Amino acid sequence: MKLIIKYSRHGAVKYISHLDMQRTFGRAVRRAGLPAEYSQGFNPHIIMSFVSPLSVGYETEGDYLELSLAREMDPRRVKEALNAVLPHELRVLDAHEAAGTKKLMAQNESAAYRIKIHFKNEGDCDKIRNAAEKLRTAQEYAAKDRKGRELDIRPLILEIGMDGDEVRLLLKNASDGALNPAVAANALLLEAGVDAEYSVCRTECYTVENGKRIPFQEYSF
Length: 221
Fold this sequence. Notes:
The chain is of the alpha+beta class. Helices cover 23% and strands 36% of the residues. The strands form 2 sheets. Strands 1, 2, 3, 4, 5, 8, 9, 10, 11 and 12 form a 10-stranded mixed β-sheet that branches. A two-stranded antiparallel sheet has the order 6-7. The chain is elongated.
């Protein structure tokens, strides 16, 4: 039995690495007494994989992992059992059975983010709004990635806009192209001429089925 598990992380837990996230969920599965399926070989491990690694310092309200169980179990009981042993700032939001054999990571197409910019000046929000609109209407847009390399980020930005004083982004997040939200956020700050810190929260991960973008919570492949 394979489950798709949706989870959130906030607070201090956002500072742990992806490897530590794997270890945390692995320990939770064992502590909860779930009948996990293990790999074969000299060093067996729980068969579990994440849809997309999340950068250290980012919060999430919509990340996913897939977990294989050795026998059938009510997904609602799995959710309850994991939440009983996980840190309070790391919550399982949903669990449902995956009907097919496709890997979750291979189906990943995009991810949505909320960027909260901590403005120092009252007029800076309008500057960011104008910068976001300029980026939205541009055919191409050169920016530097986190390693200092220049690239055209426009094809990787599927949607961009403002919701109040927050930037909303839908970014390509697939094997054939992905954009870290920090690159888009830094480009906006540079375009707007604004000096400010910001926080990032991933809000959802999506796949595409029959030409329609749907969240993994509604997908069972």
